[in-house]
Design a protein that fits this description.
Elements: E1 61-66, E2 70-73, E3 84-87, E4 97-103, E5 107-112, E6 119-124, E7 128-133, E8 135-140, E9 145-150, E10 153-159, E11 162-163, E12 172-180, E13 193-199, E14 212-216, E15 227-229, E16 233-234, H1 237-244, E17 252-256
Parallel strand pairs: 8-17, 11-15, 14-16
Antiparallel strand pairs: 1-4, 1-7, 2-3, 4-5, 5-6, 8-9, 9-10, 12-13, 12-17, 13-14
């Protein structure tokens, strides 16, 4: 069972049925300045042979997909006992995805999808597969607006509903962890629901889950643009479908305002 913090519904039957959507991000290679081209490649990014790490263009981010059944995450690069050990795939059957803050030869500094929000740790580079994303999402709570950036430039601006004053959408830097298909596309979540790496600051349990913040559709498009949810970010269904067709998992999501 998957229950987002702010939506008054559930996605159930994850173990059976078509609910989890397998949509890993492509292994996009950033444009080669020497070639002057902007067409992405699709080969997996190899580990560097030396300490020189490829710098990404502005607006791009590394994304790590776990390749081991239980991913150990450490407080620092010295190793020792792991601070967290996360199952892969996650409890909803989706490959574990981590947003990468810093890339080194043998270690990656990553955002961890646990409480408290904005937790940071280190994973072994050998335990993950790296991809990239040219996208970034910015949610402005005051403006009730989601801005989609590609290559650092604005690609779209979409109206959103956010949390109420008593159940606010948390501020912070997060990323898209999973894409799920609710059983009822006409229900309160619309046709799809992205899970984020963040959690509600006030709701610790909701329908048996841990108050995960989501980004999803709605069956009340008239309420988009207002403070209406229990913490999730609501989009009109047409806008959500547009977003699903654009952004891969691991895409950074910054919430401000």
């Amino acid at each position: 069972m998957f229950a987002l913090a702010g939506c008054g519904g559930q996605v159930t039957g994850v173990a059976r049925g078509p609910w989890p959507v397998a949509r890993p991000g492509p292994s996009i290679v950033p444009p080669d300045a020497g070639r002057g081209g902007d067409e992405p490649g699709h080969a997996d990014d190899p580990r560097p042979a030396d300490a020189t790490i490829l710098a990404l263009p502005a607006g791009w981010a590394w994304v790590a997909y776990a390749t081991v059944p239980r991913l150990e995450i450490f407080a620092d690069r010295d190793g020792g006992e792991p601070r967290w050990t996360l199952d892969n795939p996650n409890p909803r059957g989706v490959t574990l995805v981590l947003g990468v803050e810093e890339r080194q030869r043998d270690w990656l500094r990553v955002r961890v999808p646990v409480r408290p929000n904005n937790s940071i740790g280190w994973v072994r580079a050998a335990d993950v597969r790296l991809t990239t994303t040219p996208y970034e999402l910015l949610v402005d709570r005051r403006a009730h607006r989601l801005t989609v950036f590609r290559d650092g430039a604005v690609a779209a601006k979409l109206p959103v509903g956010i949390g109420t004053g008593s159940t606010p959408t948390p501020r912070g830097v997060f990323y898209l962890t999973e894409l799920l298909r609710p059983a009822d596309p006409n229900g309160p979540w619309g046709p799809f629901a992205f899970g984020l790496s963040g959690f509600s600051d006030v709701i610790t349990q909701f329908n048996g889950a841990d108050g995960i913040i989501g980004l999803h559709g709605t069956n009340r498009p008239d309420l988009v643009g207002s403070d209406v949810s229990m913490g999730c970010i609501r989009l009109r269904n047409d806008d959500l479908l547009r977003l699903v067709g654009l952004v891969p998992l691991g895409t950074p999501v910054t919430i401000v305002g």
